[in-house]
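Late entry, written up from scratch paper. The run itself happened at the end of the previous shift, but nothing got recorded in the book at the time, so transcribing now.
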Amino acid sequence: MITPKCHYSLRARIGKIVLVFSILLVSFYTTMLAMLYEWGLADATHGIVWQEAHLFQEAYKKDKNTPLPNTQTLKGYIGEKNLPENIVSIFPRHKLKKFGPQEEGLLYRFEKKTGLESHHHLLVANLYSTPERFFIYYNITVSDEVADKVWHKFKLLAIAGGVLVIMMLLVFKTTIARSLKPISSLSQWIDNLDQSSPPGRLPSNLKSDEIGQMAESLYNALQRIHQYNERERQFLRNASHELRTPIAIIRNALDVLEHKRKVGNDNIDNLVQRIRRAGDTMKSVTEAILWLAIENYSAPNKQSTDLKALVTEIIDENKNLNDGRQIKISLDIDLLENCEIEKALAYIVLDNLIRNAFQHCCDGEIKIVAQSASQIQIINTSHSYSYDSPKAQDAAEALVTGSFGLGLTLVKKIADKQGWVFDFELDEHQASARFGV
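Output as recorded:
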């Protein structure tokens, strides 16, 4: 897996975009402000000239003796020949030819002198029923001191606007950084995931936005994947645990068959029947474990089951676990009768209860007592469970977590799913399991 470099990170790329955008925006803002200043000044100046020309043209229609505009900064002339030389020097006559006989327009020229700057405007217009052209000359002369004040204000405005734009972009960058922080937290959370454990709690800085919804969907998907993997692991554990007995029976029967073949003994019907019964048990147990592990898997079929015969068969299959120990089995199961139940599930439950009692018994007595036609109690009078707490709730918790062995945990799952009765009680010396359908 290639670790991306820092400058390829989303945060770095957004930072570069924001920086470039800031420079472009500030440059554009400053340029536009200068242009707007010039445009505004030009529009204001041109507006004055055009307004004066319009007023004179209207007055000239009524009275041809209307005096020409004549102020310190604005003067009017009729006929190109009447233009003073100082104006012609600023606006040469060949520039006036850019306007046709019936065209009107405005010429502008900027002139810089020592301590002064001048803005010259010359309007070329037509007069009513007169072939001569009408000219208005407008001049604005500003000292450098006044101009500097204007530009100083403009610079302050430009700086203030630029600072404001930069502040807005910094806020934008901060907002983006905060928006990306949940993504970084989510990435770290994903890196810390362990396939053997369920996904931990999502980072606390995730909000109920698109990122939060994506994280929630991811969390739910990981939960489902973990549950699926857990069911698969549980299936393998249960399968290996439950199939040991029938596999051992088949191997032992095959060893006996091999021995009888060598000595020429053909009396193998009982062994073949035992192998067939063990094979059927393996098939039923596998289907039952699949039913526990896989959702929507069909439950084992119900059939008439002789509980007494089933308990006796299971005791016979597991009695080898007591070899080498002084263990007495007290059996009182005459009350048990035939029941219409899932035999495969009942076999797993009874096999695990009896096997668990045999495996965790010190030298002593195991009592298997029928309390009704479909309920038995298995009492281990001298158990070897490594458990200190006598509290019932602690024993129940330990049962769920498998502290008393995988077999009892499996029994509880089947009983809970089927609605069967299952209790397990424990004190310092005695362990008691009660099961009923």
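The longest strand covers residues 130-143.
(Scratch paper discarded after transcription.)
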